[in-house]
Amino acid sequence: MSTTHWQMARRAARLNPSTIREILKLSERPGIISLAGGLPSADTFPVQAMREATERVLREQPREALQYAASEGYGPLREWVAAELCGMGLAVEAAQVLITTGSQQGLDLVGKVLIDPGSAVAVESPTYLGALQAFAPFEPEFVAVEGDAEGPDPAALASARGARFMYLLPNFQNPSGRCLSAARRDALAAAAQSIGLPVVEDNPYGDLWFDAPPPPPLAARLGDGAIYLGSFSKVLAPGLRLGYVVPPKQLFPKMLQAKQAADLHTPGFNQRVVYEVIKNGFLREHVPTIRARYRAQRDAMRAALQAHLPAGCRFNAPEGGMFFWVELPSSLDATALLPKAVERGVAYVPGAPFFTSGSHAHTLRLSFVTVPPAKIEEGVRALAAVIEEALQK
Ligand SMILES: Cc1ncc(COP(=O)(O)O)c(C=O)c1O
Q1: Which has the closest alpha carbon to 346: 17, 10, 1, 36?
Q2: CA 5–ligand 1 middle distance (angstroms)
Q3: Which residues of the chain does CATH 3.90.1150.10 include?
Q4: Is the CB of 174 inside a 6 Å radius of any atom of ligand 1?
Q5: pTM value > 0.90
Q6: Measured between alpha carbons, how far is 367 from 297 in angstroms, rounded to an integer?
Q7: Is residue 172 over pLDDT 80?
Q8: Going by CA atoms, what residue is nearest to atom 14 of ligand 1?
Q9: 109: Cβ below 6 Å to ligand 1?
């Protein structure tokens, strides 16, 4: 009897377990204060509105909602997205909006359509780990564009000349929390245009501002030079798996074919339910409640970090989104410290996986949105004690 020999594709070697998911498993132990998650707060999910909308869809359009549907997405939802984006200064037609199964799928489709083995793909340093994972199977060469606390350095964009695109997260970045100023956006857009570098702009957190809305997207300045991605995960619920990608018109047919091949279409039922929820301005009432909640948690974490972090540590307080970024003294390694932190009852995400080089071992990301303020204080205190102990060794 012969033994079957499964030979995996070369790209399978580029699929790696998400360090973050592994850590999340650790942090799920009872009693751990998890500042590790990238999850929105479940207390913000609009359960009642979803229930009512679900009933309405099943009552009024059950067969359409349960049938196969168009790969582009549900027409009224595409119209809604286009109108929203026009309000942010983008020139978008509904025909350019491709509804995706989470914006994570949008990143995968971008990779499929734009990356060949060996293509240069420019990314921020640090950048969203999930984007690195989505692009990696297409075998790009990542080019990390250097930057400062304000974001990527426009002058450093020259190092990305010839790249297929630069992936950018202008608003409340995952992981660093930073938001690009209008001036930095202008300079980056001008630098990208001057070298013909396309931009892939990912914006799942833009609506979660605490003090003032962020400046308009880079895509508003770049027109056909940008692909824009958005998501309903952080303003409604991630379990819906609903996002969108807006490619320039010349890329739309290929993006659509990639989408068709991937999953035919995003669940039409979810699209119709979400459209029912949001069509009459629900988000204008709902999103401010998320902002207020997250702002209070941000304030609690800022106060706790100020009070407890040992000298030599630095952090930035975000003006929106879900994350603080902490730099420990450079002698410390956040991955090595994590088991000790978990022993003391707190979990976080080490920063190194967010860098293409795996460097910056002394950095870490803290999420503040799923933990009540009193627990944030307790968690930060435990973290500070672990750092203090390591510094004394
Ligand atoms: C920067 C960024 N992009 C995309 C995603 C994926 O979001 P979703 O697929 O839920 O829309 C996330 C999720 O955390 C994210 O942080």
Answers
A1: 36
A2: 36
A3: 11-40+284-392
A4: yes
A5: yes
A6: 10
A7: yes
A8: 38
A9: no
Q: For ligand 1, what atom is nearest to the CA of residue 101?
A: 9
| pLDDT score recorded for residue 18 | 67
Q: Collapse the DSSP code of 373 into the 3-class scheme (helix H, G, I; strand E, B; otherwise coil) and give the result.
A: helix
Contact criterion met (CB below 8 Å) for 371 and 381: no
Which residues, in sequence order, are CB contacts of 22 under 8 Å at separation 6+?
Answer: none
Cα 120 to middle of ligand 1, angstroms: 22
Assess whether the C-beta atom of 238 lies below 6 angstroms from ligand 1. Answer: yes
Q: How many CB atoms lie within 10 A of CB 119?
A: 17
User: For 47-279, which CATH class?
Assistant: alpha beta
- Whole-number Å distance, alpha carbon 312 to ligand 1 midpoint, is 32
Q: What is the mean pLDDT of residues 365-377?
A: 96
User: What's at 359, amino acid-wise?
Assistant: S
CATH superfamily ID and name for 11-40+284-392: Aspartate Aminotransferase, domain 1 (3.90.1150.10)
What residues does CATH 3.40.640.10 cover in the chain?
47-279
- Which of 39, 45, 100, 104 to probe ligand 1 with, by most ligand atoms within 8 A of CB? 104
Say which amino acid occupies 143.
V
Distance 237 CA to ligand 1 centre (A): 12
Q: Does residue 274 have a pLDDT over 70?
A: yes
